[in-house]
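Below sits the subject:

***
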Amino acid sequence: MGVNGTDATDGTPVDEERLRRLLGGPDLAWLLERVRRRLERGQQLTGPVSLATATAAQRAAAERLLGRAPSGGRALTVRLDAVDAVLVRSGISPGGLTAAVTALTGPVVPLEEVRRSEDRAWAQAYAPLTALAGEDPRLARWAGRVRDDGLVRRLARTPEAARPLLDQVARVLRALPAEPPRSLSVFAADLLGSAHSLDDGTPAATLCLSGIRALTGHPDGAGAAWRRAAWASAGLLRDDVSSTVLVLNLRGTPALDWMADVGDPCVLTLRQLAHRPPPTTPPVVHICENPAVLSAAADTHGPDGLPLVCLQGQPSAAALALLAHLHALGAAFRYHGDFDWGGLRIAMTLRAHVPWEPWRYTAADYRAAVAAAGPAPQPLTGAAAPSPWDPDLARALTEHGVRMEEEAVLDALLADLAGRGQDTP
């Protein structure tokens, strides 16, 4: 724009050179900002605007603009009607204050129009999820939730960044579950072009893990072990050798058969379970929490003991993969853990993945263990947890206030594991 600009509203000339001298200096920038904000909100340019603490230079600039000293008081107050009248009367901006602000600061887009434009852009960005939800009903509620709870906006910030991100997420979820299971990094490289596309902490990984819960029914959670298990539930192995599970007298592969023949424990990796799971299962598989139980069973019964799986605390991705596989083959599970709040939480985690019946893991069993305990049992600590398979168990723990580890009832557990083929309580 030259010396004489043009008001984009009605074509009335604006003397931009004089306008900049009068209104465009830094000492009146606050006034332009207030006017522009009103225009964006669709408000009238009338009435006063005030600056709470004005400098002498700002007061002098307002005086030059109005041709007189502004109203007194601590705040600097300028009436927009008066500014508009000065601009029109002087011929600097015959279109008034609106034309002047537009000439100095650029076209003003109403906020309502900006919001509508952003809504349209976000709707287009969500198109991959909308299409995915239409293809797979399991993902419909999830797609609506991540749209409505703002997760995508927090991760992507802008619709321009969200669209390619959601394209990636949709491609990943369409390809799941992976059959046969694959390395997560290889899967990411093949599908998304980079082995690191689904690394921990990336927006794509965060959204994909959220979608996997809806796709596979994997329970919510947090932490590295949970993420590993969540990926594994969809056939993607993030770390396929460090996640392991202990078993005893489980058969079905040459390695398992060899170890079962000598009655020694066997360590299975997530990789082995993904690529070469046992093709058969015994009708009943016992599950314990602590390695001491499995070790004692191997010492006591050797190859004659019943099949036993040890969780070693919170179930690993390998343990969950093994048990889910055995369950799909028809296995029934009997579970025992420590009688404490941590043990109940482990049992609840396992229960969220596979069904099981208690194996000497009820209130009656706990009370019997307490009655047979020595004079100084360990006190129960930590926050309480439920026991939905036997609600009285949690009440009994609260009542007695002592913890009983699996080793305290080891003799009874070992008796149940004697290889006579019978089911146990």
The CA atoms of residues 132 and 174 lie 8 Å apart.
